[in-house]
Design brief:
three-stranded antiparallel beta sheet; alpha/beta; rod-shaped
Length: 326
Amino acid sequence: MQNTHDNLTGGAVGAASDAVGTGEDAPDLSTVWLRVFLDVARHGSFTVAARTLGWTQSAVSRQISSLESALGGAPLFDRLPRGVRLTEAGRILVPHAEAVVERLQGAERELTALREVAGGRLRVGAFATADAALVPRTIAAFRTRHPGVRLTREEGLTPVLLERLSAGSLDLAIVSTTGRAPLDAYTLHHLLDESLYVAVPAGHPLAAEPSVRLPQLADADWISGGSRPEGTLLDAALRHGFRPRVAHVVAEWTAKQGYVAAGLGVALIPALAAESVRPDITLLPVLDEAAPARAVYAATVRGRSLTPAAEAFLRALRETAAKIPT
Protein backbone atom coordinates (compact mmCIF):
# COMPACT_ATOMS: atom_id res chain seq x y z
CA MET A 1 0.00 0.00 0.00
CA GLN A 2 1.17 3.52 -0.70
CA ASN A 3 1.82 6.16 1.90
CA THR A 4 -1.04 8.66 1.72
CA HIS A 5 0.55 11.47 3.71
CA ASP A 6 0.78 13.84 0.72
CA ASN A 7 -2.93 13.44 -0.05
CA LEU A 8 -4.31 14.37 3.36
CA THR A 9 -4.98 17.85 4.71
CA GLY A 10 -6.04 19.25 8.01
CA GLY A 11 -9.16 20.70 6.38
CA ALA A 12 -10.20 17.28 5.17
CA VAL A 13 -9.65 15.86 8.66
CA GLY A 14 -11.90 18.46 10.20
CA ALA A 15 -14.60 17.85 7.60
CA ALA A 16 -14.48 14.11 8.21
CA SER A 17 -14.64 14.59 11.99
CA ASP A 18 -17.56 16.98 11.76
CA ALA A 19 -19.51 14.44 9.69
CA VAL A 20 -19.86 12.15 12.73
CA GLY A 21 -22.01 12.75 15.77
CA THR A 22 -24.45 15.13 14.17
CA GLY A 23 -27.45 12.94 14.92
CA GLU A 24 -28.20 12.53 11.19
CA ASP A 25 -28.15 9.38 9.08
CA ALA A 26 -24.78 7.71 8.56
CA PRO A 27 -22.66 9.98 6.36
CA ASP A 28 -21.25 9.05 2.97
CA LEU A 29 -17.84 7.43 3.11
CA SER A 30 -14.99 9.92 3.16
CA THR A 31 -11.92 9.16 1.10
CA VAL A 32 -9.87 10.64 3.96
CA TRP A 33 -11.19 7.88 6.23
CA LEU A 34 -10.24 5.25 3.68
CA ARG A 35 -6.74 6.62 3.30
CA VAL A 36 -6.20 6.78 7.05
CA PHE A 37 -7.61 3.26 7.35
CA LEU A 38 -5.07 1.96 4.82
CA ASP A 39 -2.20 3.70 6.63
CA VAL A 40 -3.21 2.16 9.95
CA ALA A 41 -3.61 -1.27 8.32
CA ARG A 42 -0.19 -0.92 6.72
CA HIS A 43 1.62 0.00 9.94
CA GLY A 44 -0.54 -1.98 12.37
CA SER A 45 -0.49 0.97 14.72
CA PHE A 46 -2.43 4.16 15.29
CA THR A 47 0.71 5.74 16.73
CA VAL A 48 2.96 4.95 13.77
CA ALA A 49 0.25 5.96 11.26
CA ALA A 50 -0.23 9.26 13.11
CA ARG A 51 3.51 9.93 13.06
CA THR A 52 3.67 9.16 9.31
CA LEU A 53 0.74 11.44 8.60
CA GLY A 54 1.92 14.22 10.89
CA TRP A 55 -1.23 14.00 13.00
CA THR A 56 -1.99 13.24 16.62
CA GLN A 57 -2.94 9.70 17.57
CA SER A 58 -6.36 10.90 18.72
CA ALA A 59 -7.01 12.44 15.26
CA VAL A 60 -6.24 9.12 13.59
CA SER A 61 -8.45 7.29 16.08
CA ARG A 62 -11.34 9.67 15.32
CA GLN A 63 -11.04 8.99 11.59
CA ILE A 64 -11.21 5.24 12.13
CA SER A 65 -14.16 5.61 14.49
CA SER A 66 -15.94 7.75 11.90
CA LEU A 67 -15.34 5.10 9.23
CA GLU A 68 -16.55 2.30 11.49
CA SER A 69 -19.69 4.30 12.31
CA ALA A 70 -20.39 4.97 8.62
CA LEU A 71 -20.09 1.24 7.90
CA GLY A 72 -22.60 0.24 10.53
CA GLY A 73 -20.49 0.14 13.65
CA ALA A 74 -18.52 -3.08 13.09
CA PRO A 75 -14.92 -2.69 14.34
CA LEU A 76 -12.28 -2.65 11.65
CA PHE A 77 -9.37 -3.20 14.02
CA ASP A 78 -8.87 -5.16 17.20
CA ARG A 79 -7.21 -2.79 19.65
CA LEU A 80 -4.30 -4.74 21.13
CA PRO A 81 -1.92 -3.82 23.98
CA ARG A 82 0.71 -3.13 21.31
CA GLY A 83 -0.82 -1.83 18.09
CA VAL A 84 -3.91 -2.98 16.23
CA ARG A 85 -4.91 -5.89 13.99
CA LEU A 86 -7.45 -6.03 11.20
CA THR A 87 -10.74 -7.68 12.00
CA GLU A 88 -12.57 -9.77 9.41
CA ALA A 89 -14.55 -6.64 8.46
CA GLY A 90 -11.28 -4.74 8.09
CA ARG A 91 -9.78 -7.42 5.86
CA ILE A 92 -12.86 -7.28 3.61
CA LEU A 93 -12.60 -3.50 3.37
CA VAL A 94 -8.88 -3.36 2.45
CA PRO A 95 -9.12 -4.24 -1.28
CA HIS A 96 -12.11 -1.94 -1.76
CA ALA A 97 -10.35 0.95 -0.04
CA GLU A 98 -7.22 0.33 -2.11
CA ALA A 99 -9.24 0.38 -5.31
CA VAL A 100 -10.93 3.69 -4.41
CA VAL A 101 -7.67 5.34 -3.38
CA GLU A 102 -5.84 4.06 -6.46
CA ARG A 103 -8.57 5.41 -8.76
CA LEU A 104 -8.37 8.80 -7.07
CA GLN A 105 -4.58 8.83 -7.32
CA GLY A 106 -4.91 7.91 -11.00
CA ALA A 107 -7.30 10.82 -11.49
CA GLU A 108 -4.85 13.14 -9.74
CA ARG A 109 -2.04 11.97 -12.02
CA GLU A 110 -4.12 12.47 -15.17
CA LEU A 111 -5.33 15.90 -14.07
CA THR A 112 -1.76 16.93 -13.29
CA ALA A 113 -0.65 15.76 -16.74
CA LEU A 114 -3.54 17.67 -18.32
CA ARG A 115 -2.64 20.82 -16.42
CA GLU A 116 1.04 20.53 -17.32
CA VAL A 117 0.25 19.60 -20.98
CA ALA A 118 2.04 16.32 -20.40
CA GLY A 119 -0.92 14.13 -21.29
CA GLY A 120 -4.54 14.13 -22.39
CA ARG A 121 -5.84 14.56 -25.93
CA LEU A 122 -6.25 17.34 -28.45
CA ARG A 123 -8.54 17.17 -31.50
CA VAL A 124 -7.83 19.73 -34.22
CA GLY A 125 -9.62 20.40 -37.51
CA ALA A 126 -8.38 22.49 -40.43
CA PHE A 127 -9.43 23.49 -43.93
CA ALA A 128 -7.36 22.10 -46.80
CA THR A 129 -4.93 24.91 -47.59
CA ALA A 130 -4.09 25.39 -43.91
CA ASP A 131 -2.71 21.85 -44.15
CA ALA A 132 -0.14 22.96 -46.71
CA ALA A 133 2.16 24.65 -44.20
CA LEU A 134 0.42 26.25 -41.22
CA VAL A 135 -0.93 23.08 -39.60
CA PRO A 136 1.95 20.64 -40.17
CA ARG A 137 4.53 23.13 -38.91
CA THR A 138 2.42 23.85 -35.86
CA ILE A 139 1.93 20.15 -35.12
CA ALA A 140 5.67 19.54 -35.40
CA ALA A 141 6.44 22.35 -32.94
CA PHE A 142 3.68 21.25 -30.57
CA ARG A 143 4.78 17.60 -30.50
CA THR A 144 8.35 18.63 -29.78
CA ARG A 145 7.17 20.57 -26.73
CA HIS A 146 4.36 18.25 -25.60
CA PRO A 147 5.05 14.70 -26.79
CA GLY A 148 2.69 13.16 -24.22
CA VAL A 149 -0.46 14.75 -25.70
CA ARG A 150 -2.48 12.51 -28.05
CA LEU A 151 -3.09 14.85 -31.00
CA THR A 152 -5.48 13.97 -33.82
CA ARG A 153 -6.29 16.09 -36.87
CA GLU A 154 -9.03 16.08 -39.46
CA GLU A 155 -9.54 18.07 -42.64
CA GLY A 156 -12.76 19.62 -43.88
CA LEU A 157 -14.54 22.68 -45.18
CA THR A 158 -15.08 25.49 -42.71
CA PRO A 159 -18.86 24.91 -42.24
CA VAL A 160 -18.28 21.22 -41.51
CA LEU A 161 -15.46 21.97 -39.09
CA LEU A 162 -17.65 24.41 -37.19
CA GLU A 163 -20.40 21.81 -36.90
CA ARG A 164 -17.87 19.33 -35.52
CA LEU A 165 -16.63 21.95 -33.11
CA SER A 166 -20.14 22.70 -31.82
CA ALA A 167 -20.86 18.99 -31.41
CA GLY A 168 -17.80 18.59 -29.18
CA SER A 169 -15.94 16.40 -31.69
CA LEU A 170 -13.15 18.96 -32.06
CA ASP A 171 -11.39 21.10 -29.48
CA LEU A 172 -10.22 23.71 -31.97
CA ALA A 173 -10.78 24.35 -35.69
CA ILE A 174 -8.71 26.38 -38.13
CA VAL A 175 -11.22 28.10 -40.39
CA SER A 176 -11.42 30.87 -42.95
CA THR A 177 -13.94 33.49 -43.98
CA THR A 178 -14.46 31.68 -47.30
CA GLY A 179 -17.81 29.91 -47.47
CA ARG A 180 -19.91 32.50 -45.64
CA ALA A 181 -20.26 30.26 -42.57
CA PRO A 182 -21.93 32.02 -39.60
CA LEU A 183 -19.25 32.69 -37.00
CA ASP A 184 -21.21 34.42 -34.24
CA ALA A 185 -21.34 31.37 -31.96
CA TYR A 186 -17.56 31.04 -31.85
CA THR A 187 -14.59 32.76 -30.32
CA LEU A 188 -12.26 33.61 -33.20
CA HIS A 189 -8.53 33.81 -32.55
CA HIS A 190 -7.09 35.72 -35.50
CA LEU A 191 -4.07 34.03 -37.07
CA LEU A 192 -3.45 35.86 -40.34
CA ASP A 193 -4.96 37.61 -43.36
CA GLU A 194 -3.94 35.89 -46.57
CA SER A 195 -3.86 37.38 -50.01
CA LEU A 196 -4.94 35.58 -53.17
CA TYR A 197 -3.05 34.67 -56.32
CA VAL A 198 -4.21 33.63 -59.77
CA ALA A 199 -2.38 30.57 -61.05
CA VAL A 200 -1.85 30.68 -64.82
CA PRO A 201 0.11 28.44 -67.20
CA ALA A 202 3.71 29.49 -67.71
CA GLY A 203 2.96 30.62 -71.29
CA HIS A 204 -0.16 32.64 -70.43
CA PRO A 205 -0.31 36.21 -71.88
CA LEU A 206 -0.45 37.64 -68.34
CA ALA A 207 2.31 35.45 -66.91
CA ALA A 208 4.93 38.20 -67.07
CA GLU A 209 2.73 40.77 -65.29
CA PRO A 210 3.63 41.71 -61.67
CA SER A 211 -0.01 41.46 -60.61
CA VAL A 212 -3.50 41.10 -62.01
CA ARG A 213 -7.03 42.34 -61.42
CA LEU A 214 -9.76 39.73 -61.60
CA PRO A 215 -11.81 41.50 -64.32
CA GLN A 216 -8.82 40.95 -66.64
CA LEU A 217 -9.73 37.25 -66.47
CA ALA A 218 -13.49 37.61 -66.87
CA ASP A 219 -13.43 35.56 -70.10
CA ALA A 220 -11.08 32.86 -68.81
CA ASP A 221 -11.91 29.24 -68.06
CA TRP A 222 -11.58 28.61 -64.34
CA ILE A 223 -10.57 25.57 -62.31
CA SER A 224 -12.55 25.58 -59.06
CA GLY A 225 -13.55 23.32 -56.21
CA GLY A 226 -17.25 23.86 -56.97
CA SER A 227 -19.41 24.42 -60.00
CA ARG A 228 -20.76 27.64 -58.51
CA PRO A 229 -18.56 30.50 -57.27
CA GLU A 230 -20.74 31.23 -54.24
CA GLY A 231 -19.05 30.15 -51.02
CA THR A 232 -15.68 29.61 -52.72
CA LEU A 233 -12.66 31.80 -53.39
CA LEU A 234 -14.32 32.80 -56.67
CA ASP A 235 -16.80 34.86 -54.65
CA ALA A 236 -14.28 37.62 -55.31
CA ALA A 237 -15.19 37.58 -59.01
CA LEU A 238 -18.86 38.17 -58.20
CA ARG A 239 -17.89 41.28 -56.26
CA HIS A 240 -16.22 42.55 -59.42
CA GLY A 241 -19.38 42.19 -61.47
CA PHE A 242 -18.72 39.03 -63.50
CA ARG A 243 -19.62 35.41 -63.07
CA PRO A 244 -16.59 33.20 -63.76
CA ARG A 245 -16.98 30.31 -66.15
CA VAL A 246 -16.02 27.14 -64.24
CA ALA A 247 -14.65 24.76 -66.85
CA HIS A 248 -13.44 22.04 -64.50
CA VAL A 249 -14.48 21.19 -60.94
CA VAL A 250 -11.40 19.92 -59.08
CA ALA A 251 -11.35 19.73 -55.30
CA GLU A 252 -7.72 18.90 -54.52
CA TRP A 253 -5.10 21.66 -54.72
CA THR A 254 -2.37 19.58 -56.36
CA ALA A 255 -4.80 18.42 -59.03
CA LYS A 256 -5.92 22.00 -59.70
CA GLN A 257 -2.33 22.94 -60.42
CA GLY A 258 -2.08 20.07 -62.90
CA TYR A 259 -5.09 21.37 -64.80
CA VAL A 260 -3.62 24.88 -64.86
CA ALA A 261 -0.22 23.60 -66.06
CA ALA A 262 -1.98 21.72 -68.88
CA GLY A 263 -3.52 24.98 -70.09
CA LEU A 264 -7.09 23.99 -69.19
CA GLY A 265 -7.84 27.13 -67.20
CA VAL A 266 -6.72 29.40 -64.38
CA ALA A 267 -7.31 29.04 -60.64
CA LEU A 268 -7.29 31.11 -57.51
CA ILE A 269 -4.61 30.04 -55.02
CA PRO A 270 -4.59 31.36 -51.43
CA ALA A 271 -1.30 32.45 -49.90
CA LEU A 272 -1.21 29.49 -47.50
CA ALA A 273 -0.90 27.15 -50.49
CA ALA A 274 1.56 29.30 -52.46
CA GLU A 275 4.68 27.60 -51.10
CA SER A 276 3.64 24.25 -52.52
CA VAL A 277 2.94 25.46 -56.08
CA ARG A 278 4.61 23.49 -58.89
CA PRO A 279 7.27 25.26 -60.99
CA ASP A 280 5.50 25.07 -64.37
CA ILE A 281 2.74 27.53 -63.42
CA THR A 282 2.95 31.20 -62.50
CA LEU A 283 1.32 32.92 -59.53
CA LEU A 284 0.06 36.47 -60.04
CA PRO A 285 -0.90 38.52 -56.96
CA VAL A 286 -4.52 39.66 -57.13
CA LEU A 287 -5.07 43.38 -56.67
CA ASP A 288 -8.40 43.80 -54.91
CA GLU A 289 -8.63 47.07 -52.98
CA ALA A 290 -12.42 46.75 -52.78
CA ALA A 291 -12.35 43.63 -50.63
CA PRO A 292 -10.31 42.51 -47.64
CA ALA A 293 -7.93 39.58 -47.78
CA ARG A 294 -9.23 36.22 -46.60
CA ALA A 295 -8.99 35.98 -42.81
CA VAL A 296 -7.85 32.78 -41.10
CA TYR A 297 -8.85 32.02 -37.54
CA ALA A 298 -8.55 29.37 -34.88
CA ALA A 299 -12.16 28.92 -33.78
CA THR A 300 -13.36 27.66 -30.41
CA VAL A 301 -16.89 27.45 -29.05
CA ARG A 302 -17.85 30.60 -27.19
CA GLY A 303 -18.23 29.97 -23.47
CA ARG A 304 -16.43 26.62 -23.56
CA SER A 305 -13.16 26.50 -21.62
CA LEU A 306 -10.01 25.68 -23.53
CA THR A 307 -7.92 22.79 -22.25
CA PRO A 308 -4.27 23.58 -21.46
CA ALA A 309 -3.31 21.54 -24.54
CA ALA A 310 -5.60 23.63 -26.76
CA GLU A 311 -4.13 26.82 -25.32
CA ALA A 312 -0.61 25.54 -26.00
CA PHE A 313 -1.56 24.58 -29.56
CA LEU A 314 -3.10 28.02 -30.12
CA ARG A 315 0.16 29.64 -29.00
CA ALA A 316 2.08 27.42 -31.43
CA LEU A 317 -0.36 28.33 -34.22
CA ARG A 318 0.22 32.03 -33.67
CA GLU A 319 3.99 31.55 -33.69
CA THR A 320 3.83 29.59 -36.95
CA ALA A 321 1.38 32.02 -38.60
CA ALA A 322 3.73 34.93 -37.84
CA LYS A 323 6.44 33.24 -39.92
CA ILE A 324 4.33 32.48 -43.00
CA PRO A 325 4.42 35.14 -45.75
CA THR A 326 0.88 36.09 -46.69
